[in-house]
Amino acid sequence: xxxxHPVIKxxxxxxxxxxxxxVFIVNPKAGxxxxxxxxxxxxxxxxxxxxxxxIWHTEKAxxxxxxxxxxxxxxxxxxxxxxxxxSINEVASALLHTEVVMGIIPAGSGNGLAMHLGYGRDxxxxxxxxxxxxxxxxxxxxxxxxxxxxxxxxxxxxxxxxLMRGSNWRGFLPYFLKSVEAGLKYTARTCTIETxxxxxxxxxFVVTVANGPMYGYNFxxxxxxxxxxxxxxxxxxxxxxxxxxxxAVPSSLNGKIYDAGFVRHFSARRVKISCEGINYVHIxxxxxxxxxxxxxxxxxxxxxxxVPNLDSNV
Length: 314
Ligand SMILES: [Mg+2]
Known about the structure:
single chain, alpha+beta, Rossmann fold, Tumour Suppressor Smad4, 15-stranded mixed β-sheet, 33% strand, globular, binds magnesium ion
């Protein structure tokens, strides 16, 4: 009789049942009581039979990526980004092409990716969702060599992100006010957008290259974007009177932005964008100026993420 089977079986079982090592990377600047809240939430809502946890705090800009790389070196199974799309971007960039899985506890202002994946915006609820979440492998994009997980783009939203960067005031109201300010300041400009199968020249207010569908606050800029199909959804806002953009806000909340007359959209794997004037770009909501052409490339299936199991009742 072959004796090896039970041994192999036990080994597989041990691996399956072994508690997972999980670390939460918290940016204390994301909220005044966040640190305390996360500690309490982990204690109360994380399944301690399934996870052995650590909580690490960031101390400076770029530190989340550094800590995530440390977690990879120390063989953690899961690294949870506690924050908004910016924190997620930092953590994810350290986990690309590794077996380490990224989780999310939404604690930023917009939380576009967390909302799309089904984490919601409540910390305790998101913590419980981690207990039963599944692993999914998703794509990422690179804009001039910088990775993004959710959205990258140029135009009005890039200017909003830049204006938000200078402000410590977070939340919907400042975001809305900065949007109005940017809406008044920003003028549409002629952009040439080249993909693997077409070249478009258009006067654009916004050019978004979407891996995920959603900005923060449920604004769906690219309702058809899928995180794992190897394609970007490219969305252009053509130059029309500004009131038309504001009038389209309700349809963007309902996933119907493509019905607006000023929207043009298509899929692509590779996008080159050349615009006149200063390039106000954003990468996962982080605003910056980036001179020259923008080259955006798809990196398929490069990141493992924990996705809430929406069948389980938590
Ligand atoms: Mg896609």
